[in-house]
Specification:
Layout (H helix, E strand, L loop, with lengths): L6 E12 L3 E4 H5 L6 H8 L3 E4 L6 H16 L8 E5 L10 H8 L6 E5 L5 H15 L4 E9 L9 H4 L4 E13 L7 E9 L7 E3 L12 E3 L1 H23 L8 E4 L4 H11 L10 H4 L6 H11 L8 E8 L3 E8 L1
This protein binds oxa(dethia)-CoA (UT7).
């Protein structure tokens, strides 16, 4: 067998998150649409979600999460040369929200751009940043997931408005030389997929080139549910196969937080023990691209995720898009 070769790895150097102040529970929603706390909890596990204040934008949430990640890493914006911001709710059609964050951080060097893969956005952004860092072209990336989904919800549609929330999370990935083994810290593998045939199951019915409006989120929830478990478990199996690992090797499973039933069914299908699952869906609802970094930040803050732990992230969303990444923290 060949000896492992030293190689660059994208290592997590810091993490941060931000939630808008206003927290809305199911009882408050039941005053707006024909729903109930019981229905929402039983079908989704969601109890509360945060909603951005008037004038509070995606870039503002993202900047707060980024500042916290920088402080957590003991770095400043001067140390970052790449910002990738995953969002489906940008401040403007253009410029990219990432450039607004870049300016807010006082950064005039490096490059910042947005990435659009809806709920899978953070996994896509981690995978993209990893490819920049291991190529040697960039040294330290701020990878952000930030959303104000409250702005694209139809607040009269009970089938969607009860499911989503606003928030932002960020990690810093730093290129470091590893031994080329599974013991290396950093992103060990990532697997991205999409299939555009599913557009009409989850989409926004507006946009600059079609209606010249922002539009509202539309979802055939049952249809999305039907595909979700199979898609996310497929890409996790890809991650296990690429690294020669299995569910038993995981310390933490940090899935996209859309629905507790999808999370539990995915874990059960792959034999991931219930106590290894990080869940924030009850408190945050589905925050799309922000959901995984918000969950990672919660599990780091309370000491569950520790340096050296093996962490699986996965998501599925509009497009459809779906993906996984295995990270040695
Ligand atoms: O992050 C991107 C990926 N998105 C997702 O993963 C979402 C995937 N889908 C889901 O999580 C679930 O399908 C939902 C939570 C959206 C819905 O749960 P479900 O068990 O699939 O319910 P359903 O759509 O089959 O609806 C069941 C019933 C319907 O009534 P009838 O037709 O049986 O009389 C709905 O009209 O529940 C009704 N309903 C509601 N009732 C009270 C739908 N929304 C509500 C509501 N409150 N908010």
């Amino acid at each position: 067998m060949n000896a492992p070769q030293k190689r660059l790895r994208s290592v997590v150097a810091g993490i941060g998150s931000y939630l808008p102040e206003r927290c809305v529970d199911n009882v408050e929603l039941a005053r707006m649409v024909d729903t109930s706390d019981d229905w929402i909890v039983q079908r989704t596990g969601i109890r509360t979600r945060h909603i951005a204040a008037e004038g509070e934008t995606t870039s503002m949430l993202a900047t707060k999460a980024a500042e916290q990640a920088l402080a957590n890493a003991g770095l400043t914006a001067a140390d970052i040369d790449l910002i990738i911001l995953a969002t489906a709710t940008p401040d403007y059609t253009f410029p990219a929200t990432a450039t607004l964050v870049q300016a807010a951080l006082g950064m005039t060097h490096g490059v910042a751009f947005d990435l659009q893969a809806v709920c899978s956005g953070f996994v896509f952004a981690v995978s993209t940043a990893d490819k920049f860092l291991i190529s040697g072209s960039h040294k330290r990336a701020l990878v952000i997931g930030a959303e104000t989904f409250s702005r694209i919800l139809d607040w009269k549609d009970r089938t969607t408005c009860v499911l989503f929330g606003d928030g932002a999370g960020a990690i810093i990935l730093e290129a470091q030389e590893g031994e080329g083994t599974l013991a290396d810290r950093g992103v060990l593998t990532s697997h991205l997929r999409s299939d555009g045939r599913h557009r009409e199951k989850l989409f926004v019915d507006g946009g600059p080139s079609t209606t010249q409006t922002v539009g509202h989120l539309r979802m055939a929830g049952r249809e999305v549910f039907r595909h979700a478990v199979g898609m996310v478990t497929d890409v996790m199996i890809d991650a296990f196969a690429a690294t020669g690992t299995s569910a038993e090797d995981l310390d933490w499973f940090v899935p996209h937080q859309a629905n507790e039933r999808i999370i539990d069914a995915s874990a059960e299908k792959l034999g991931i023990a219930a106590q290894k699952i990080v869940k924030t869906v009850s408190m945050h609802g589905n925050t799309s691209a922000a959901s995984i970094p918000l969950a990672l930040a919660a599990a780091c803050a309370d000491g569950r995720i520790q340096k050296g732990h093996l962490v699986m992230i996965e998501a599925m969303g509009g497009g459809f898009t779906w993906g996984s990444a295995l990270i040695r923290w």
